[in-house]
Write a structure and sequence with these properties.
Strands 7, 8, 9, 10, 11, 12, 13, 14 and 15 form a 9-stranded mixed beta sheet that branches. A 6-stranded antiparallel beta sheet has the order 2-1-6-5-3-4. It is globular and about 50 Å long. The chain has 279 residues and is an alpha+beta fold. The chain is built from 6 helices and 15 strands.
Length: 279
């Protein structure tokens, strides 16, 4: 039976309980992180916990002690006998009054894990009409308020694509529902900056650093949303996807999929995982 860690205890998933008054359930008041586990070891702990704390601070929540979270994760992976896995840490506002008001109370903390599904090296995407608000209160925070993502991903899947791409309110390229987007033009790698309203992913940051090692010029720069369909190459990044080639945008094939630069980054990322579990 699957085990989860809830507020300090490893319990059977079927026996786990969260209050119906939990603010995460009621209003989406919470943050989370998803880590890829390789050979029983979570990848990039430091960076993920840095971002968890950043997101929690952005919502006015207090992230749990890092040592507690790491001990919980390792206990959970052992309890479920998981070696290659997806690990998720969720922190919510805890039990609160009905509505948006938040009082000083203990947060709810959940650590869960599952087998990681095989991810295709390639994917097709569609650009949705809905926008990210780059000036919103939660812009750049990894919150559990994912209803927009659920709706957009369903829209993409209904059209035979695997991921949805958001623009922001300025019609600039922003991000996908659960990943960052990169485009290649004339041998240079480009990705939307924080000011575009995207979540700054851990894998995104590592790819930008790998660009220096590979001698490939990388830029965080605002781009029109059409830059994706006009790219020479393009790819998505996330903890579970790693580096995933985009083959089509709105049904239109990209000229290089996978292209040489995408291939170099995919190989370099795999090599990084093999040599350093916490870069």
């Amino acid at each position: 039976m699957t085990q989860v860690w809830v507020n300090g205890k490893v319990v059977d998933a079927e026996a786990a309980r969260v209050s119906p008054f939990d603010h995460g359930l009621l209003v989406g008041d919470g943050v989370f992180e998803t880590l890829r586990v390789y050979d029983g070891r979570p990848f990039a702990w430091r960076r993920h916990l840095d971002r968890l704390e950043y997101s929690a601070n952005g919502l006015g929540l207090v992230a749990p002690d890092r040592a507690i979270l790491q001990a919980a994760a390792h206990a959970l992976l052992r309890a479920n006998d998981l070696q290659e896995a997806r690990l998720r840490i969720t922190v919510t506002g805890g039990v609160q009054p009905l509505g948006s008001e938040r009082r000083d109370t203990r947060p709810t903390v959940i650590v869960a894990a599952s087998d990681v599904k095989s991810v295709s090296p390639t994917i097709s995407v569609v650009v949705v009409a809905w926008t990210r608000n780059e000036r919103g209160a939660t812009a750049g925070l990894k919150t559990i308020s994912y209803a927009e993502n659920v709706r957009a991903l369903a829209y993409a899947q209904e059209r035979g694509a695997g991921e949805a791409i958001f623009r922001n309110t300025r019609d600039e390229l922003c991000e996908a529902t659960g990943s960052n987007v990169f485009v290649v033009r004339n041998g240079e790698l480009r990705t939307p900056p924080a000011s575009a309203g995207c979540l700054l992913g851990v894998t995104r940051a590592l790819v930008l650093e790998l660009g220096q090692e590979l001698g490939i010029e990388c830029h965080e720069v605002a781009m029109p949303v059409d830059a994706l369909a006009d790219a020479d190459e393009a790819f998505l990044t996330s903890s579970v996807r790693e580096v995933q080639t985009i083959t089509q945008v709105d049904g239109r094939a990209l000229p290089n999929a996978p292209g040489p630069i995408t291939t170099r980054f995919a190989k370099a990322f795999s090599a990084l995982v093999a040599r350093n579990i916490d870069p």
